[in-house]
Design brief:
Strand order of the largest sheet: 3-2-1-4-5-6-7-8
CATH architecture: 3-Layer(aba) Sandwich
Strand content: 15-25%
CATH superfamily: NAD(P)-binding Rossmann-like Domain
Radius of gyration: 18 Å
Order of helices and strands: EHEHEHEHEHHEHHEE
Helix content: 40-55%
Bound molecules: NADP nicotinamide-adenine-dinucleotide phosphate
Shape: globular
Distance between the termini: 47 Å
CATH class: Alpha Beta
Number of strands: 8
Structural class: alpha/beta
Number of domains: 1
């Protein structure tokens, strides 16, 4: 008999987040609790209805652009259960090629980066020993996707420095200076580098305390998955995974008996670490 485990996934009413909740609900025990969170009450309630699993699944409204709401939920779970075991920061806002990216940047960055920062800040401290905190990022999040002159803003820095770099980039987008400063046009790319850098920053501080307790903080790449987020950006989905297939390696990582120390703080795809500084340019 194991103790009750508490899991939480952000942005979970569709896509990869929904598949993660469905997979956790199938693979956890009847006493365990999975919180399916999202920003819209109706969509959250409907998504909970579509889950047919073993563990208990409850919906919670959680807009990840609201850092206070994230902090309150983390505290509530700490008070109610003594902490959480499995946390996945997954939410992403819609981004479409049909509109200028500057028009979409504020919401996109607030969800993907603001949400990640807030989840790391509020949930890492309430992770129980043996817990996992995973940020769903992308293989686009390695340093080689950025102009080398931007690397110092993300490499070997603190979470506060990552936040400042993301804010400076957001302002440069609005001032029309982002591309001359070397920022990639597709805002998804710096956003993903920022997510991976934020995880690395928090992991660097916690590594020596987490590893002896078998606790993992890491980011993951799910590969190309056919979802609302990817559909507007790619024509060929013949090699894309379904959300259900894409989440299996992430579920394996979340539910592994032990943490492989070489994965701690890293970006992981299908169980393998993607180098932050790739040795061979891709
Ligand atoms: N799909 C791919 O090929 C791919 C590849 C690499 C990485 N990823 C990453 O995987 C993650 C999930 O992406 P996906 O493809 O599953 O996207 P998706 O299908 O568009 O789902 C995104 C989820 O985030 C939610 N969300 C949006 N704004 C939110 C907010 N303010 N607060 C809380 N939730 C919010 C959405 O809720 P609503 O329904 O209410 O909008 C939705 O449930 C993202 O980090 C993405 O970058 C995806």
């Amino acid at each position: 008999m194991t103790a009750q485990r508490i899991a939480l996934v952000t942005g979970a009413n569709q896509g990869i987040g929904f598949a993660l909740v469905a997979g956790l609900a199938a693979r956890l025990n009847p006493d365990d609790l999975v919180l399916l969170t999202g920003r819209n009450p109706e969509r959250v309630a409907q998504a909970v209805q579509r889950i047919d699993g073993v563990a208990k699944v409850e919906g919670r409204v959680l807009d990840v652009t609201d850092a206070d709401a994230i902090a309150i939920l983390a505290k509530d779970l700490q008070d109610a259960y003594g902490g959480v075991d499995l946390v996945v920061s997954n939410a992403i806002g819609p981004l479409t090629p049909d509109r200028p990216q500057a028009e979409q940047a504020d919401e996109f960055i607030a969800v993907a980066n603001g949400g990640t920062h807030a989840v790391l800040r509020s949930f890492a401290p309430v992770l129980r020993p043996g817990g996992r905190l995973i940020v769903v990022a992308s293989s686009l999040g390695t340093l080689d996707h950025l102009d080398p002159k931007l690397h110092p803003f993300f490499d070997g820095v603190t979470l506060e420095q990552v936040e400042r770099a993301i804010e400076d980039w957001r302002q440069a987008i609005h001032q029309g200076t982002a591309e001359e400063q070397g920022w990639p046009h597709w805002i998804n790319v710096p956003s993903k580098v920022g997510q991976v850098a934020a995880v690395r920053a928090v992991a660097a501080e916690r590594r020596s305390a987490d590893l002896p307790q078998d606790t993992l903080i890491a980011s993951v790449c799910p590969g190309l998955v056919d979802t609302r987020a990817s559909r507007p950006w790619f024509d060929d989905f013949s090699q894309a995974r379904t959300p259900e297939d894409a989440v299996q390696p992430i579920l394996d990582l979340l539910l592994a008996d032990h943490v492989d120390p070489t994965t701690y703080g890293e970006l992981i795809r299908d169980g393998k670490v993607l180098p932050w500084h790739p040795a061979v340019p891709r």
